[in-house]
Amino acid sequence: MNSEFPLWEVFIRSHGGLNHKHVGSLHAADADMALENARDVYTRRQEGVSIWVVPSEAITASDPEDSDPFFEPAKDKIYRHPTFYKVPDNVKHM
Amino acid sequence: MQEYLLHLADNALILGHRLSEWCGHGPALEIDMAMTNISLDLIGQARNLYAYAAELEGQGKTEDDLAYLRDVNGFRNVLLVEQPNGDFAQTIARSFFYDSYNYFYQKALCESHDKQLAAIAEKSLKEVAYHLRWSSEWAIRLGDGTEESKQKMQAAIDDLWSFRGELLTPAAYEIEAAKAGYGVNPLEIKEEVEKKLQEILLEATLDLPADGWMHSGGKTGRHSEHLGFILAEMQFLQRAYPDSTW
Q1: Number of structural domains, chain A?
Q2: Range of the domain at A59
Q3: Residue B135 C-beta-side C-alpha neighbours within 13 Å
Q4: Is the pLDDT of residue B211 over 60?
Q5: From A94, B20, B67, B137, which residue has the greatest number of CB atoms within 10 Å?
Q6: Would residue A85 count as lying in a domain?
Q7: Is there a domain that residue A67 lies in?
Q8: In chain A, whose CA is at the least distance from the CA of B138?
Q9: Confidence of residue A81 (pLDDT cuts 50, 70, 90)
Q10: CB–CB of A26 and B30 under 8 A?
Q11: Alpha-carbon distances of A57 from A8, A54, B217, rounded to whole Å
């Protein structure tokens, strides 16, 4: 689609109960067209049961230059991972 | 019943083939994929119908024999579906005319007394409902779009208008099919089809052309020169290398 059409981000829920995942982006004139385009481009091999489309301009992204203050401090705080517990055998999906 | 099944299958196959010609040439990647998706839906519908027709014929024929080894005058599709793609607006007009008819047709066919045919219609209906949504929305977008898109969409509607009459004029085998309870007489759905058409054209701010002279002939095997070219390309492989497989 030509560059006059705004960009949309596409999120697909692959099965009931799972969360929507970002799968890619596309161009469309409006939300209706974006949904149909997403259906045609991203779900033709049964990838999904639900689609969200979001105007790309509505997304605020973190700046790569901020990655040190944003992400570096978490690196040496291994105790934040819930891996120091014994999970009983009959507890699933942990 | 054979001729009736071929009519249904040929409509789907030929429109499917026409839409497949857009593959790699669509105005944008998203539209290209939408058209080839629809094309594959239609070819799939044709396969189901040909397979059933071949089974009923009971002479060991397959769906491929019916699709690839019949000549122009054996085909029973309406003239509308063999018309060239033209520009994008013409493709949309052709699809919209066909989809708005086909949707109500498949819906009625779900009530067929023939279980197999009813099952095929039920499966097709979900696909066709999307086709209608897609072509309607594009007709509206182009009609109610820019001055240029409106002019092109109106020209396409006007150009193809005279091919609409054939859809809603029953052939002898359709009348027979409806009487016997396994098929649909298009006159039964005429009112719904016209209503849908008017509704969409109104929303698209397009003018409804006057009903004048209408083309006919496809349903009884009298085709435009376009179908010969379609078959030449579509049937080439099976004709040149009979029974070749992947």
Answers
A1: 1
A2: 7-80
A3: 29
A4: yes
A5: B67
A6: no
A7: yes
A8: A33
A9: confident
A10: yes
A11: 8, 8, 53
Whether residue A21 lies inside any domain: the answer is yes
Residue B173 to residue A55: CA distance in whole angstroms = 51
Q: Is B97 exposed, middle or buried (0-12, 13-18, 19+ CB in 10 A)?
A: buried
- Report CA Rg, chain A: 19
Whether the predicted pLDDT of A68 surpasses 80: yes
- Cα atoms found within 13 Å of the Cα of residue A47, Cβ hemisphere only: 17
pLDDT digits (tens, 9 = 90+) for B139-151: 999 999 999 999 9
Name the one residue in this structure whose structure tokens are 């690196």.
A75
DSSP type of residue A18: S
Distance between CA atoms of B37 and A41, rounded to whole angstroms? Answer: 9
pLDDT for position A75:
84
Residue A48: give its domain's CATH number: 3.10.20.520
pLDDT (tens digit per residue) in B37-86: 999 999 999 999 999 999 999 899 999 999 999 999 999 999 999 999 99
Q: Which residues contact A9 (CB under 8 A, 6 or more apart)?
A: A22, A24, A25, A53, A54, A55, A56, A59
Given this model, what pLDDT does residue A3 score? 58
Q: A37 vs B34: CB contact, 8 Å cut-off?
A: yes
When pLDDT is averaged across residues A44-59 and rounded to a whole number, the result is 94
Considering only CB atoms, which chain A residues are within 8 Å of B33?
40-41, 44
CB contact under 8 Å between B141 and A41, yes or no, is no
Query: Please, what are the domains in chain B?
Result: 2-208+219-240 (1.20.1260.10)
Q: What's the complex ipTM?
A: 0.77
Secondary structure element (H or E) that encloses residue A22, with its range? strand A20-27
Could you tell me the strand order of the sheet in which A20-27 lies?
A20-27, A7-13, A50-55
Out of B30, B130, B133, closest to residue A37 by CB:
B30
